[in-house]
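Work through this protein:
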Amino acid sequence: MASTNVTGNCPGAMKATSNGAFQNESPLDFALPLIILQICLVVVFTRLLAFLLKPLKQPRVIAEIIGGILLGPTALGRSKVYLDTIFPKKSMTVLDTLANIGLLFFLFLVGLELDFSAIRKTGKKSLLIAVAGISLPFITGVGTSFVLSATISKGVHQLPFIVFMG
């Protein structure tokens, strides 16, 4: 049996801190100064957008979505200089890790604010609507998967295909 050697193009690890600009080192080549710049850029940009959208009575989350679109690959990310300087590939591991930690913290705070008494007060009618809203589309998807399994899922195991389509 022949084996193939597949090499990936993984970005190299970044050193955490630099010796400083006076040692002829760019701070943006190191993880800590770069992540600080990225966080500051995102926060300042989204707060500026929130300030500009305040007269239009838009919530801050709209400013954050628009900021993500403008700072991401849709707008400014098309500039190779911007992308390679502010958001280089080798820094994405650190940025993704911090983003996941932030999301985990946010979900923890949402869980702390959850009020079970309000959920109990809504009663059986809300529960019935929620169960119907989840189960009816799932059953429709499962039925569709049985109809389409002969044409679409060639070489795919049946159970994962049914769950995916459901």
